[in-house]
Amino acid sequence: MKLLLGEKMAKNLALNKKKSIILEPKAPYNFDANFYKPSHFPSSDNVWEKEKYWITMIWKSKRLGLKFENTGTVNKPKIKVNIYSQKELSKDFIDSLIPEIRWRFNFDQNISEFCEKFKNDEVLGSIIKKWQGMKPIAANSLYETLIIYLVLQNATVRRSVQMLENLFDRFGGKAKFDGRILSTFWEPKDMARSTEQEIRDLKVGYRAKFFTKITEQFANNEINELTLRKMSKEEVKKEMLKFYGIGSASVEYLLFEDFYFLDSLETIPPWEQKIMSRLIFNQKLVSAKEILEFFEKRYAGWEKLAFHYIWEDIFWKRKYQHIEWLEKEIRL
Question: How many helices and strands in the chain, by DSSP H and E?
Answer without folding.
Answer: 17, 8
